[in-house]
Amino acid sequence: MTMIVRFFPLLVLMLALAGCAGGSGALSTGVGVNASQYAALEPAPAIGGGPLKPQSLLGVTPSALSARLGAPALKRTEPDAEVWQYSGGDCALFVYFYKTGHGAFASTYVDARKKSGGAASTEACLADVIKAQGPPVS
């Protein structure tokens, strides 16, 4: 009996974590550059034409991103990283820039979050950001 009482909190914790693990209802949002490619990444100075997809925002310089989406609503700057936030209707799109092996900043990860909290679709959020920003500058 003491053994059951002793391990009961551990059992409760395991069940709680299992519920957070996300089953079929989990939403995978972010897209990023493979870690093995990151050090050799040469940032692109422009984003190609055509419709924007989250993947097309990867591997570009900050100026390339601002040329297509305009200035971010919020920018956090650290010595070797920058995080840009764009606002959509009910979501926020985050673009993460890190210094590459070449010393230049390149976007390496794109993610989206609901303003009410939780994961959002990066593709849907990017579409909302584009609507909120108006037509592309370039």
Describe the structure.
- The protein has 138 residues and is an alpha+beta fold.
- Helix content is 31%, strand content 24%.
- It has a 5-stranded antiparallel β-sheet with strand order 1-5-4-3-2, covered by helices on one side.
- It starts with a helix and ends in a 5-residue tail after the last helix.
What would a concise description of this structure say?
The protein has helices at 2-20, 35-38, 62-69, 122-133, and strands spanning 31-32, 74-78, 81-87, 91-99, 105-114. The chain has 138 residues and is α+β, with helices and mostly antiparallel strands.
- How many E strands? 5
- Derived from helix and strand composition plus strand pairing, the structural class reads alpha+beta
- Beta fraction of the residues? 15-25%
Oligomer: single chain
Rounded mean pLDDT is 78
What's the main sheet like?
A: 5 strands, antiparallel
**How many discrete structural domains?**
1
- Separation of the first and last Cα atoms: 71 Å
Please give the count of helices: 4
Strand order of the largest sheet: 1-5-4-3-2
N-to-C series of helices and strands: HEHHEEEEH
